[in-house]
């Protein structure tokens, strides 16, 4: 039996969402004048609840606004390394860190499944001892430089479950012979929570808290 502990990242492991923090950190290091554009990025974000722009498109728009159309690969590596260190030091909740360590000690393979871009989520995950990251891919050119925009699916909602299932297939893991724990704070992860053998609702917002109560899912408070 393969044992997997799959974690969402933003507001499950970290106190806050990471994307805006990454944009601010990147703009500060690359082009501080772009910080003046942060209110514009915030206005763009308001388009999502109004259904004017989807999450994947919003990622690309805010990335282009705050970081530019193209970032050389070596520059991005430096940005990511500094950012991951800050997140690991200041944003990871102590109880999340303890649960990750406990799952590892119990023999679970640690998987981070996040809507955040994999290129920076991997650096955070490595600092926390994760084995694998499943996340949103960013567009790149032939040289490996980072372009604005999402490549493929945004790892969110039903797409996250599909991407986890695709990863299981790639790894040759038969779902019938796998035991999965899944941790998340957000109702968008209901498809993965429903697919897990042990669903854990962590720091839930009200819609997920209501769903957890109705379905008898354990609720953990790591805040």
Structural commentary:
The protein is α/β, with parallel strands linked by helices and 223 residues long. The chain has a single domain (2-220), classed as 3-Layer(aba) Sandwich (Rossmann fold). It has helices spanning 19-30, 38-45, 55-67, 73-90, 94-105, 118-128, 158-170, 190-195, 206-215; strands spanning 2-7, 70-71, 109-117, 132-140, 146-151, 178-184, 198-202, 219-220. An 8-stranded mixed beta sheet has the order 2-5-4-3-1-6-7-8. β6 (178-184), α8 and β7 (198-202) form a beta-alpha-beta unit. α1 (19-30) packs parallel to α3 (55-67), α2 (38-45) packs antiparallel against α3 (55-67) and α4 crosses α6. The mean pLDDT is 95.
| Count of alpha/pi helices | 9
Total number of domains: 1
CATH architecture: 3-Layer(aba) Sandwich
Shape, please? globular
Q: What is the assigned CATH homologous superfamily?
A: HAD superfamily/HAD-like
Biggest sheet: strands, sense, closure? 8 strands, mixed
Number of strands: 8
Task: Assign the CATH class.
Answer: Alpha Beta
List keywords for this structure.
globular, single chain, alpha/beta, Rossmann fold
